[in-house]
Design goal:
- There is one protein chain.
- The chain is mainly beta.
- The protein has one domain: Gtp Cyclohydrolase I Feedback Regulatory Protein, Chain: K.
- Helices cover 14% and strands 36% of the residues.
- Strands 5-6-4-3-8-7 form a six-stranded antiparallel beta sheet, covered by helices on one side. It has a two-stranded antiparallel sheet with strand order 1-2.
- A hairpin with a 5-residue loop joins strand 1 and strand 2.
- The two termini are 17 Å apart.
Length: 120
């Protein structure tokens, strides 16, 4: 698992190891109109820490989590809540809706969150 330390040096370690200055980064992309349609882009160990009951079959695209493939995923707001309790902070977020000029409406609205957590 790669992360960077406080000096920006790349460090390889498993998520169970405690390394001073380690930074975990997680990306969450949500189709807001469907609160159980989201994807988490992170190392599998981090996803299991956030969603310990995630089904193995829900990991797609090089191990990233897809809620649509999970039988019982929590809604994305519960995921954000869990991440905050685990010490993650939102570094940034963006959102975008449909394009009314081509007939899209806000049902296609997506949000993208970037979370990070520094381990001491």
């Amino acid at each position: 698992m790669a992360s960077s330390d406080s000096n920006g040096t790349i460090v390889n370690a498993s998520s169970n190891e405690s390394i001073s200055g380690r930074i975990d980064v997680v990306s969450l992309i949500v189709l807001v109109s469907y609160p159980k349609h989201y994807r988490i882009f992170a190392e599998k160990e981090l996803v299991y820490e956030i969603l310990p009951n995630a089904a193995d079959s829900s990991f797609v695209w090089f191990g990233n989590y897809s809620a649509e493939k999970d039988e019982h995923p929590p809604v994305y707001m519960d995921v954000i809540s869990r991440m905050m309790r685990l010490g993650y902070q939102i570094l940034g977020s963006t959102g975008g809706g449909g394009n009314p000029a081509i007939g899209d409406n806000m049902s296609t609205h997506t949000s993208h969150y970037i979370f990070s957590r520094k381990r001491e």
